[in-house]
Amino acid sequence: MIASSNEIVEATRTLIVEDSYLLGLQMKMDLESLGMVIHGPVPNVQRAMDVIEKEEVDAAILDINLGNETSFPIALALMKRNIPFIFITGYDDLILDNNDFRDHELLRKPIRVETLYNAVRKFN
Amino acid sequence: MSSLHLQSILDSALDALVTIDSSGSIVEFNAVAERMFNYQRTDVIGQQMVDLIVPPELRADHAAGMKKYQQTGEGPVLNQRIRITAQRSNGDVFPIELAIVPFQNEGDEMFTATIRDMTETVEREHRLEASIKREILLRRELDHRVKNNLGQILVMCRQAMSRSTVDLQNFEDLSNRVIAMATIHDLFGSMSPKGIALSELVLRGCAPYLLSPEQLEVAGPTLYMPAKTAMTFSVVINELATNAAKHGALREEGGRIQVDWEVDGDILFTWSEHTSDPIETEVKPSFGFQLLDSMIPYELGGSIEYVFEPAGFRFKAVVPGIAFESTS
User: Fold this and answer.
1) The pTM is what?
2) I want to staple B155 with a disulfide (CB 3.0 to 4.6 A). Which of A26, A92, B252, B259 is the partner?
3) Can you name the CATH fold of B163-324?
4) Which residues of A fall within a CB distance of 8 Å from B299?
C-alpha cells in the first residue's frame, strides 16, 4: 500500500503542470487523498508562472511537453527559487541532455500513484 | 586496336571518360563527358582539365596531388572509387563518383578518369534519409499517442470507479468514451497533412448516438485541426452526444441537433438541440459535465458556456485560433 496516515506529509504544497486535463486531474485527486496540498493542475508555462509568483509552492511536478511549449522555463524559475521538482513525460526516448536539469528525476507516464507520491515526498 | 575502334568504345561507354597527360592537358573526352559537362570534345582537347571541370575550391588539392604523384609515385586517390564534386561549363557544381587510373603512353604518364554523375543518386539518398527520419518521428508520435490514450483510459476507469454510485450506467459511459477515442484513431489513420477536419470529427463522433442521419446538421467553413486539438474536441463531442441521447434531442426521432462554427480569429463553435420533448433544465454534477466544463478551457485555452433553452440544450465554445494551427 501507499503510506500509513502518520507518514502523510501535509506541508508539501505541490504545483502540478500537465497539459492533459484528465491526467492532471487524476494526479491532483491522488496526491490530495494522500494529504498533499495541490496547486493546479495548470496546462501551460504562463499559468504555472502565475502560481509560482502568487502562491507558496514547496515542490512541483512538471510534464515536459506542453503541446506548443516545454516546461523548461518553469524549471528554471523554480531553480532560482530553490524549489525542488521532478519531470514527467510520455515520451519513451526522451533524455534530459540539458545540463541544468540532469540532476532532476524524470518519471515516465503512466506513473503509479505510489511512485509519484514517493518522488515528491522526498522533498519534504 | 584502330583509333576508330577505340573511339567507338569510348563513345558507347556508360560513364564519362576523360584522359589527361602528365601536364594536365585533356587528350580524350568522350560523348558522355560532352553531355555531362556540356563541352564539345573539339573545344576541350589540349585545354587544362583542372580549369574546366574541377570546382575552384578543389583545384589546389588536384595540383598538389598531381605533383606528389609525379615526385613520389604515391597517389592515394588513384585506383579506387571516390565521391567528390565536379563543375559543368555553366559553373554548376554537382556530385560525382570518380575512379582515376594512371597508365604509360609513349613514355608519358597519363590518367584516365571514369566519372559518373551522382546528382540523382544523391537526391535519392536524401529523399530516403528524409523518409526514414519522418518514419521514426511518426512512430515516436504514434507510440506517444497510444500511451497517452492508455493513460487517459486509465483515468476514465478510475473516475468511473470513484463516483459514489458505481452502476451499469457508469460502465456504459466509460465504454462510450473509449469508443469515442477509438473513432478518432480511425481519423488519425487517414489524416491529411493539414490535420483532421472538424466536420468529420463531429459526424463520426455523433454517428453512434443518432437514431437517423437527418437528426444531425453540420455547417461551417472547412476547418482542420492538429491531433492534440482533435483529441480534446472528440471528448467534448462525445459528452455532448451522449448527453443528448440520455437527456436531450437524441431521445426521440423528431429531435434535431445543429452544429455550426464560425472562424473569426477565434473559432466559435455552437451545438444547438431542438426537441419537442421536455428536457432537464439543470446540470447534475457528473463526470460528463466536468469534462464539458473543463476540457476546452484547460487544454485549448478557450471558454465555454451552456444554456438550457425551451427548445433544447445549447453549448457554445470559443477556441483560440492557435489551437487549430499545425504545430509541425
Assistant:
1) 0.73
2) A26
3) Heat Shock Protein 90 (3.30.565)
4) 19-21, 43
